[in-house]
């Protein structure tokens, strides 16, 4: 359903503004999320398990996106995200935290997968790198805006969840009125096709790319998610920064990340996807490996800036690669598998941080994440072909 008269302006209301709003809510919550969970007197391992349980939502999300359509899936995802944020805000024990995170994980998977499928439907291959990099940049701008706002919320660790809930409600209204349905009409009429059979067929047909690019994405998302968790914990537990200083480190480094998406989009569409992925992740991994050597606000900030600069250079690369590789038939199933690999990495990141921190300390978690990042660079350098097709 790629539109030859495609314009990125057409994505402003259905994609970019909702992405900005939801990312703003995430930015409000994320700087102190790991500190909030840790405040329930949990070990590092249990803290990171709570933050990692959302991966279970991807397969049911793939079913809903293909069966019920892109728009309905996005709206249902927003409802579940809203319920999750309220649940996190009022939670009083470990089990309530895990339940809220599970609901939010399914909702976030629905939201992200349906948006990814929508963009794959409407964005031509030649414009995909810039359009998705801009999407990544809008997400980063929203995250930065939320992190900036979080500085003014004081030391109350529950308040950010309720602010996020209000943003989710606003986003739901916007998406209800401005997102069109783009699911191919053939699939809309083919409701009897067994989803599991189609999922297995897509897995079989694309096993090689899922075993190479998919594993590379696992490593990248492990590094990314681990970064979001380890920086606040390291700043709080090792460097001894105040809550406001932690938020400042996260906010300033995010500003650097946010500024790089035009470079990422240009590199992907002009030179190829690998030209943004490989150097970006290499820089990211280097910053992570340097973090354990920091012991002050300034040096930690510089390491965080280096990490987020590399992540910004690689902005949108994993979504673009997934959209490039997705087959015309079974787009939702393939993207569900692609997101499953990514979220497996997103769940592995907290587990790596938590287990190694409990055994050896948070500094060694940084070394481990840096090594995983270098492994991703090796995979994308030697095992994953360029997916940008020239005219």
Helix and strand topology:
Elements: H1 12-38, H2 44-52, H3 58-68, H4 70-90, H5 94-122, H6 125-150, H7 159-178, H8 185-189, H9 195-205, H10 207-239, H11 243-259, H12 261-270, H13 274-290, H14 297-313, H15 317-325, H16 331-359, H17 362-382
Question: How would you describe this structure to a colleague?
Answer:
The protein has 391 residues and is mostly helical. It contains 17 helices and no strands. Helix 3 runs antiparallel to helix 16 (331-359) and helix 6 (125-150) packs antiparallel against helix 12 (261-270). The chain starts with 11 loop residues before the first helix and ends in a 9-residue tail after the last helix. The relative contact order is 0.16. The model is unreliable at 186-192 (pLDDT under 50).
Short descriptors:
391 residues; 80% helix
TL;DR of this structure?
With about 400 residues, the chain is an all-alpha fold. It has 17 helices and no strands.
| Mean pLDDT metric | 84
Helix count from the secondary structure assignment: 17
Low-confidence stretches: 186-192
Structural class: mainly alpha
Secondary structure tally: strands: 0
